[in-house]
Amino acid sequence: MRRKRLAVLTGAGVSAESGLGTFRDSGGLWENYRVEDVASAEGWIRNPGLMLEFYNTRRRQLADVRPNAAHLAIAGLEKDFDVTVITQNVDNLHERAGSTRIIHLHGELTKVRPENCCNESDGFSEASVFDIGYGDINLGDKAPNGAQLRPHIVWFGEAVPKIEAAMDAVEKADVMLIVGTSLQVYPAAGLFRYAGIDVPIYVIDPKEVPVSDPRITHIKDVATSGMEKFVLMAAKNFE
Ligand code: APR
After folding, report:
1. What is the pLDDT of residues 16-34, one digit of tens each?
2. Domains of the chain (ranges plus CATH)?
3. Alpha helix (H) ranges present in the chain?
4. pLDDT, tens digit, for every residue of 172-212?
5. Sheet holding 201-204, edge to edge
6. Which residue, among 202, 237, 206, has the nearest Cα to 7 in the 3D structure?
7. Which of 83, 106, 185, 207 is 20 to 30 A away from residue 21, measured at CA?
8. Cα–chain-centroid distance for residue 72?
């Protein structure tokens, strides 16, 4: 008998206990930066240097943090489930925890690309994307094709090319788990609506869930202890 398919949607809250800030909690990133200045397509045109520094700072910080028990528990679910992680996070903590199938809806902090590639004109090809680890990129750092290097991040105002793959994973899921997202940013926030009518959806978040759906069970807890509860429940109900 095939293993049950589990779609896991994560947001910044799953990395909070690793020491990475979220966006919309008090003290979050969007309290200290204007989104349009540091994470938007027009911001890149207006002041690319400011945007490069914003991502350089976050990339350097990533070198100093580790996956937490929630990332490890999500990776551990691959023992008993066919897991697809769909993350809004640009950190590499799911990879470093051992998850093997990850869809990064909003890009990846350690990756860069020429500013004129991976868009509508080339069908979002990732052929020219490469990983720089935790180093900086600055104005004047050029790709082999001569174009300015930019972070491989989906900015506000840009398409989310991996949303179809994410929708497909959710449509096929037998169980859905949502960890640490405020469900404020589309299209990611609408993904759960693609889960089957009888598919149980578990949401782990210390705050109230901003949507109501009869399929949702809210585990009102932080990611690490919420994942302990989910793993016990999953072992009992879904294997
Ligand atoms: N464990 C679990 N959840 C937590 C924890 C924790 N320790 N701490 C905070 N949270 C929850 C918050 O309650 C909130 O629901 O994580 C969520 C964080 O929400 P946001 O800061 O809005 O982050 P996210 O939902 O990932 O944002 C989505 O917005 O700005 C864009 O591209 C950015 O990918 C990001 C997207």
Report:
1. 999 999 999 988 999 889 9
2. 1-20+67-106+160-239 (3.40.50.1220), 23-64+110-153 (3.30.1600.10)
3. 13-16, 29-32, 35-38, 41-46, 48-63, 69-76, 93-97, 163-172, 223-237
4. 999 999 999 999 999 999 999 999 999 999 999 999 999 99
5. 102-104, 82-87, 5-10, 175-179, 201-204, 216-219
6. 202
7. 83
8. 15
Pair 174, 6: CB distance under 8 Å? yes
Distances (CA, A) of 37 to 22, 33, 48, 70, 155: 18, 7, 9, 31, 11
Tokens for 198, please give them: 């009888």
**pLDDT over 90 (residue 238):** no
Q: Which residues pair with 219 in a beta bridge?
A: 204
Give the closest residue to 133 by CA, choosing from 30, 40, 56.
56
In this structure, are residues 182 and 18 in contact, taking their beta carbons and an 8 Å threshold?
A: no
Q: Quote the ligand 1 centre to 199 CA distance (angstroms).
A: 23
Question: Is 152 noted as a catalytic residue in this protein?
Answer: no
Q: Quick one: DSSP state of residue 202?
A: E
